[in-house]
Each structure stands twice: as structure tokens, then as C-alpha cells.
Amino acid sequence: MFSHCRNTAVGITASLLILSGCSNAIEETQTSLSDIEAQQEAAIQSFTQLADLESRLQSEFETVLEEDEDLSTLSDGSAQVHTNIEERRGALEALSETSGELLSQHEEMTQIDSDEISEEAVNGVLDSLDSVTGSLDEFTSAYEEQLSSQTAYFESLGQDDSSYETFQKGIEAVNDEMEGIRALRIQLDEEFVALEEAHSTLSSQLEETSNE
Which UniProt keywords apply (predicted)? Predict the structure, then answer.
């Protein structure tokens, strides 16, 4: 009789451990999804900041042209346009941190193992994370090059040998670089939408599993 009770207890304990393992895997996945959502929000804030600063750059540049006769504030780095560049560089650093956090979530999700969680839904999130982080790295790298080009351009306008040709060619070069960055931004928008959809699919599946 005691042997039967012990075997029964062992069986119950094993079942509880299995259920606990499933529950933990679901909770870990839900936590990862919450962290991913938080990073998406952080990325949106950074992109919004970039857009706001970009929209102000033209008027800040015009102010320099109107108020600084010899354009010395452009060459010495004290003009507002240089502050604008540094603020955008800060937003880029935040985006790089976001990319790193998303990579960490990718790594954590690959370690989660449970038959209760849809492999297809998990892979959808992982694939989307791969795309987003890759494009974020490409975007931040290209944008940093753009900021360096803008800095060099503004500084050149304050030099003694600066001419209208310097002004015109610099504007054209900056605009050309911005076109490539805009294309990357559009691509990122699409990839973030895909990530959100994959996130929603997996989240719904986890909720259904938890309610069973």
C-alpha cells in the first residue's frame, strides 16, 4: 500500500513539474514579448526625435545665414545646426541601444523550449527581430555618416575659401545621402509593422494556451 502511495506521489510530482515547466516557458515568453514591445516604443520615440530635429535644421541654418555675417559660428561649431547634429547623434545612440536590447530578447527567446508554444509563431517573432535589428544597424551606420557629412559641410561654409560652389555642391551631396536614409526608414517602418503582427500572433497563442 505504501509503495502504491509513493508511486502515485511520484507521478503527481512529475506531472506538477511538467506543468510548472510549461507555465514558466509561457511566462518567460510573455516577458520577452513585453520587453520587445517596450523597445518598439523606445524606437518610435527616437525616430520621432530625429524627425523633429530634421524639421528644425533648415530654419536653424537660415538663421545662421541671416545673423552670422562671416559664418564663423559654422566653422567653430557653435552654431545651432551643430547642436542639432549632436542631438540627433544622441537619438542614434538610443536606437543602437534599442537594437542591442532586441538582440538580447532574440537570444533569450531562442533558449525557451516548450511543446506548448507554437514554434511557427515564435519563429515569426525571431525572424522579424532579425530583420529589424539588421536594418536598425544599417540605418544608424548610414545616418552617422550623414551627420559627419553635414558637420564637414557646415564647417566648410565658414572657411575663407568657401564659395557659392561649395554651398551648392554640399547641399546636393547632403540631399543625396538623405534619400538613401529615407529609403532605409521606410524599410524599417515595414519591418516594425511585421514585428508587431508577429508579436500579436504569438501573444494571442500564449493567451489561448494559458486559458486551457
Answer: Signal
Q: How far apart are the two ends of the chain, measured CA to CA in Å?
A: 34
The Cα 62–Cα 55 span in angstroms is 13
Q: How far apart are CA 136 and CA 192, in angstroms?
A: 10
Spatial distance between the Cα atoms of 187 and 165, rounded to a whole number of angstroms: 34
Distance between CA atoms of 183 and 138, rounded to whole angstroms? Answer: 11
DSSP helix/strand/coil, 160: coil
Q: Please answer whether residues 108 and 31 qualify as being in contact, where contact means their C-beta atoms are separated by less than 8 angstroms.
A: no
Distance CA 30, CA 48 (A): 27
> Rounded distance, CA 172 to CA 57, Å?
16
Domains identified in the chain and CATH numbers? 2-211 (1.20.120)
- Cβ neighbours of residue 176 under 8 Å, at least 6 residues apart? none
Highest-scoring range by mean pLDDT, 46-60, 109-123, 198-212: 46-60
Decide: 75 and 159 in contact? Cβ < 8 Å. Answer: yes
DSSP type of residue 68: -
Predicted confidence band of residue 24 (pLDDT cuts 50, 70, 90): confident
- pLDDT bin (cut points 50, 70, 90) of residue 10 is very low
Here the cell at position 15 is: 506531472
